[in-house]
Design goal:
- The complex is a heterodimer of chains A (about 500) and B (about 375).
- With about 500 residues, chain A is an alpha+beta fold.
- Chain A has helices at about 5-15, 70-95, 120-135, 145-160, 175-180, 185-190, 195-200, 210-215, 230-245, 250-285, 290-310, 320-345, 350-355, 490; strands at about 20, 35-40, 50-55, 60-65, 95-100, 105-110, 115, 170, 180, 360-370, 375, 380, 385-390, 400-405, 410-420, 425-430, 450-455.
- The N and C termini of chain B lie far apart (about 70 Å).
- The chains are: A alpha+beta (about 500), B alpha/beta (about 375).
Chain lengths: ~500, ~375
Amino acid sequence: MTVLTSLAKALAAYSMGPQRLTVFRHQYISSKPIVIVPLTLAGETNAPLAAMVGSDRARPTLIVTRQPRERAERLQFAGRLASELLFPIEMAAQRTQPTGPGPNARMRVVDAPQIWVPNPAGIEFVRTLGRMTRLRQIEGPWAVPKKVRDLGIWLTWFAEQAEFADTGALIAATQALAAVWATGQSDLEDGNLAAQMAWLDPPEGMDVASAVSRAENPQLCPPAGPTTDPTFDRLFLEPALRDLASARTPAAHSAVHRRLTAMLEEQMRPTWELVWTAIDLLLEVTEAPRVPKRWEQQRDRFTSFHQYVANGGNPQAKRDSAGRSAHRLAELEQRMAAFEAQRAYDDPLVIADYRLTGEAFAGQVVDVDATRRVPGLRRSVLRPLVTVATSDQVHLDVDQHVYDPARNGQQAVITSVNETEDGWRIELELQNQMGGGQTAKPGSVPLLGEEVTYTSVTETFVRRRPWPTREETPWTHGGPPPDSTPVVEDAAEDWS
Amino acid sequence: MSVVDERLNALRGAAPRKPHNARTLAALAANPGCLRRTLLDAAGIDKGQIAQGLGVRISIGQMSSIAIARGKGFEAKVKADGCAELLRLLREHIGLPVAEVHYHDLNPADTDDRITSRLRRSRHALRVSAESNEPTGTLFDHPILQLTVNGVQVRIEPDLIAFKLGNQFFIVEVKSFAILDGTADSGKVAAAAQQSAVYVLAMREMLQTAGLDPDMVSDQVVLVCPKDFSNHPVAELLDVRKQLATLKRQLDRMESVESVLRLVPPDLSFDLRLDDAGRPTRDPQELAAAVFQVTARYSPECLGACELGGVCRSEASGMVPVLGRVVREDLGGIDSIKEAVELATGLREPDAGQQQASDLLRRAYGMREAALGAVR
């Protein structure tokens, strides 16, 4: 968190209304998001109890287990969830377009699926359900339907994607909201979707304070799951499960099941509505310019993983090998750095954070030498000089590279820094993106009097050495890893 | 009875004493600066009842009945047949060469079994075992331990098993969260380690009081959890040295109850004045006034660790700590939210200690206004 975030929180608490943290929304939002609101049975390791799922706010699909402690019923639950999720995944994979003209173009899906859950615990549910189902086998004594195993593979992929800062594949509503708005409560309280939404969208005719107090009462606003409210467990769920277990006739069983379904729907419905309202609120915020490009990369990732699954790829191993861990860690860092830089380039409120820490400055151009040339290797090259007057507290020094967000990250090097009465005068030498001509391309060199921003944050990332192949995994990382083919023991795993 | 005990009993009034447990001790150590909690816990006051008496809903310590049933079932499974399953784990996973063991049941004999007599039994059993050189292992089921907190001796009744092998005591903690593919929820493991540290410290203190070597209690704790998605137990060794060091430091730092008592008026009482049906008859406003006589140190983490969290939150309303620890650090030296906003907008001149934070806020506010000006 930064001073700007803290200030926004203080302003929100003072005004009793939400405060924007960013000018733009940096999260891509699909035109057809899939929402999952899961519930699990308390005390068990991810024993699914029920889920509300679908892309149609008015008509969610309700999946309720008939006996959450039974293995066969858990598989049944997974099978029904698979029917809901694998269809949109397959539909998305069918519609592709070339990445560009020419023979080297690859195919890329037109749109990729995007899943929303209420909170980070929902992402954990997806991850654990994926782990539970992906290692099953589709033949032999513990055979499960293929769709159950495929669901596991896909849920694991979605949960892995959710670890990346720039992801759009699996989103927790509370986190997406917290990226755009500050409320006047702590992060801990913002983790409760109902309490967070009480600030952003209080019920008609209710002030924020009463809305928050209502949201914190689990009897009025059931928890967003997957854990259920302990009072609900004691008063309703436990008796219903007991009746379910003791029902002797099919008629009695289905009567109890109807009761169970109704009470669970009552627990999930408010959260379901909140997630959709959250999506609507976020859609009202203007999308940042670099969002479509990032989503394009996400579509590429989806396309290639679909290819992998379609070609009969193995389920992900229980634990990553050292090599894969190293890859993932590097990718996590790289995508995080790129995402941070892109946000800063797009959003004046995000770059303001860097200005406060001295990693960026904004000011007015007070001097320009647009035609300056310096000797190069073969001939002289264009290196205009720009002097900026700023009142920001700059912590950058001579010879440091800085970039201009407004000019697609045009690179400049600081040639001098001088303190003046009311701030700093910084002289920069522009280094690229000015065209190949004798004079600079129009617009590529700032004009006298122009307001400009420069920052040391960059989105380009250079990997110096290529990764070793799988066979060349060094001994420091345990040498070449064994193949992670699923074994029968995994398929027979006990789920009591 | 000492003067301190007398005053603590007076604070509690007629209500029965609510003993500490490892969870309350661990939570207390997490916020050692909170005098309110220190005092109420030392006096054994039921904070949940106080919160309810003040009309504040509490959600702390509430566990699902379904989860409790499952947890008990799991513990019973681990302890069944004289801890047969547990011994198998100790042999297999921890590599302890346990041939045969004694089993010492220290559970209450009946409902009338007083905690003092159980403590005496536990202490005796542990001391005898510590002094003997017998090579066979011994399991102690549900011993009562004692720890000095704020200068007061606190009895804790942990849900645990102590295991002695050779010259070493091990604490065994049975938890019902799963270890999935060798990893478990880091928050839950951290909480388990924190609690275990309390047990290790208490047991060391007991040995030391008996004139024995406290280092006989290992700082490695055996954690027993369900494996993956099953109900089968699996064990892991947990190193709690770090938690022990933190706990010791915080217990040392904690104000002694005696010095806290000096700060409060002598006639202060938190008695709810329950009637025969167990309903509180004390005027909530009067009770609130009594509670607010003792200063609290609120942070949002209290909501998940202390029954009075909601009470202290509404008391702290409008103050910076309500927004969380990070905000409190960012706005260092500024107490109220109104003050922070007024400093940022330039409506107020900073005090001597606020100059730096104020400058930063002013600049941040200016940038914010400039950036948002376009969207508004």
